[in-house]
Amino acid sequence: MKETVATVFGRLIDISGLVTFFLLWELLPSIGIINGQFIPPLSRVIIEIAKLAGDGSLFLHITASLQRTIIGLILAVGLAVPMGFLLGGVFPALARQLRPLFRLFGQINAFSLFPIFILFFGIGEVAKLAIIFWSTVWPVLFTTIVGVRNIDPLFIKSARSMGANKLTIFNKVILPGAAPVIFTGIRTGATHAFLMLIAAEMIGAHAGLGWLVHNSEVNAIMPRLFAAMIIIAILGTMLNYALVILEENLVTWKQAVEKIE
């Protein structure tokens, strides 16, 4: 009984800050402390979300943004993970030589390259996918290289001493050992990609959450603007949790080790 009460109390403490924020958001504009024209009460924002869901446009925008994010993320992971294994495990000297260049590229904001992407790919879907790809590929590449390098060489030597070939060592030692770090990079890259996509959709898009934000801002529909911002925050959180669940289902040995500890 005491453990149940302590668990419930702990969860209430965890969400107390969020509940307080939403209460203030509803009360302050309603009583006039904050100008409701610029920051509408939360209830009006929720009504606007219901309207968007009711006419079906909300699902259209969510689908468009998620489709672009997932495709760009898959393309980036498909390139960065194999390259990370090669540079981290097969060609470490080349990785050291290329590290400054990769770090330089990783510091370049994807949205600042949008004019270049438009020049090469136009203002269609390919340019938006290029932004997602650029935002995602670097954190995934860096974490893959680090994950491969951090594998204890003793594990590899032990596998070799038991007669394991290179493919077995990769499948049973290197890949499982690097997987948790790789998933950290994928989650980081997905967060960056989603935020950059929202900015990219403000230019040359006809659907998407970024387009919804831009359209609401231009037409000064503040409840819809804040509704889009809440949806973006919820969707980004759900995407991160989805990747965590995927990691838990794929990297099952990690949970086994944590239970032993």
Give a nutshell description of this structure:
By secondary structure, the chain is mostly helical. It contains 11 helices and no strands.
Question: What do you see in this structure?
Answer:
83% of the residues lie in helices and 0% in strands. With 261 residues, it is mainly alpha-helical. It has two domains: 39 residues, no CATH class; 220 residues, MetI-like (MetI-like fold, Orthogonal Bundle), CATH 1.10.3720. It is elongated, with a radius of gyration of 23 Å. The C terminus is likely disordered.
CATH topology of the largest domain: the name is MetI-like fold
CATH class of the largest domain: Mainly Alpha
Strand proportion: under 5%
Mean pLDDT equals 80
Q: What is the element string, with H for helices and E for strands?
A: HHHHHHHHHHH
Q: Count every beta strand, where a strand is a DSSP E run of 2 or more residues.
A: 0
Number of helices: 11
CATH homologous superfamily annotation of the largest domain: MetI-like
Report the principal-axis shape.
elongated
Low-confidence stretches: 256-261
